[in-house]
Design a protein that fits this description.
- The protein is an alpha/beta fold.
- Helix content is 48%, strand content 17%.
- The strands form two sheets. It has a seven-stranded mixed sheet with strand order 1-2-3-4-6-8-11, with helices on both faces. Strands 5-7-9-10 form a four-stranded mixed sheet.
- Belongs to the enoyl-CoA hydratase/isomerase family.
- It holds the Pfam family ECH_1.
Length: 259
Amino acid sequence: MITEETVICWSRDGALARIDIQRPDKRNALATRHWAAIETALDAIAASDAQIVVVSGVPGAFSAGADIDELGQLLTAPEAFAANSAQVQRTQLKLQRLPQTTLAVIDGACVGGGLGLALACDLRLASSRSRFAITPAKLGLVYSADDSRRLLNTVGMARAREMLLTGRLLDAATALDWGLVNQLAGEEGIEELQQAQVQQLLATSGQARRAIKTVLGHLGGDASISLAQADAAFNAAFSSSDFVEGAAAFLQKRAPRFS
């Protein structure tokens, strides 16, 4: 399916769903309409039986953040600016709460709202040429509480403070060292690393991964997930079909065949 004049494309291939941002002339900068298209794709994916969702950009740019042309207009229209901010935060929160396991595949610029999008994913892979920054302070703006919490949960308070207060640009090696990305592609390349990560995830239980996201969501400060819900996700796993299969596979010394 193609939306927003092919800038935001999403597709399904069995257990794998993809959201591709394709705006290379703007380094994948995102305007309000693009965030809305991503939200539409997320709604469709959430209702599907996909297990893994890959979010990626184009060679050289995951996303450079806000569309500067639109931003100039929004700065003179407070209501439109507020609507844009609400759309961005709603889309990122929806991505964070997606039941499927999400993977950001980053090759190049990952800045501002682009990094916010990546932080809303469960895992992040990057190429060695990737660069990362969060720059609202350079515009006299403030990162939202939800965005700041995702950054804090990922890199810790001291490094979150440094990134937010200085707008520092991080290279890929530093991002890996700080825990901003989970893995860095070497000679094998970002596509090969992505395929290996997807296969590793698909070898685990989809039911368990969804429940794990519920537990981690509660621990990460998501107000929509209570302790009771996290506990229920933990307890329900013991009566799940995937646990039955996982236990049988363990005893029989074979690879599990999860539903």
